[in-house]
DNA sequence: TACCGGTAGATAGTAACACTGAATAGTGGT
DNA sequence: ACCACTATTCAGTGTTACTATCTACCGGTA
């Protein structure tokens, strides 16, 4: 992972995970694998798990422990109402930033 | 400044400032004022100055001390060749992230 | 003179977040 | 008994933006 990407993910990775969870429930290992498929090649596993614990403590997700056939039990996370509100805020913030950067990229001061 | 925006600016603010400097030279006070006009209403002045010192130490900008009629001398920053390369890298990283988020926002897993 | 607002920059300490590296645990196959 | 894969956790580190404060220069005003 480039240092640039590491810094840029701050605040964004949380939104990405919430967005994933807005579509379907998922557990940590699964989310990490999905992120890697999407080109976030070197996302650290520990990072995702820490993030999940964080959003759980903030009350954005509900958790269910589900047995796995292939290993230890999974913690399946699903977005709740508060999480959806927070995700909405995330998209607003992202959109603002994205528009400003789009303008800058096109050469407009 | 929302906490969300604060986190999201990490890694991005540096790119924004480099992008500004790619268009024209500027000094800290001026950059802070410009950012506020653009809607980054509560960017802390200290943040911009610290960032400028950082990119100077990394060799992305050249500095000239220019006397001001209205106050203490200004430190005018201009992007050099290394800074332009770094800015290119920033735009690549940003584009990658932006595309992924665009997909997520449109409901695609 | 003394003071204040606007201009301009610097800095010590704090909080938040992603990363590193390692550990723990369950299951199935050899 | 060992290994690979699945699955989660955690202590310690580095980077970044913020808070709050400080220094400093100039012009205008009481």
Can you describe what's shown?
Chains A, B: It comes from Kibdelosporangium persicum. 2 copies of one chain form a homodimer. Chain A contains 5 helices and 3 strands. Chain A is an alpha+beta fold and 109 residues long. Chain A has one domain: Arc Repressor Mutant, subunit A. Chain A is globular and about 55 Å long. The mean pLDDT of chain A is 94.
Strand content of chain A: 5-15%
Q: pLDDT average of chain A, as an integer?
A: 94
The name of the CATH topology of chain A is Arc Repressor Mutant, subunit A
Helix content of chain A: 55-70%
Oligomer: homodimer
Q: How many strands, which pairing sense, and closed or not: the largest β-sheet of chain A?
A: 3 strands, antiparallel
Based on the structure given, which CATH architecture of chain A is correct? Orthogonal Bundle
Outline of the structure:
2 copies of one chain form a homodimer. Chain A contains 5 helices and 3 strands; from the N terminus they run ααβααββα.
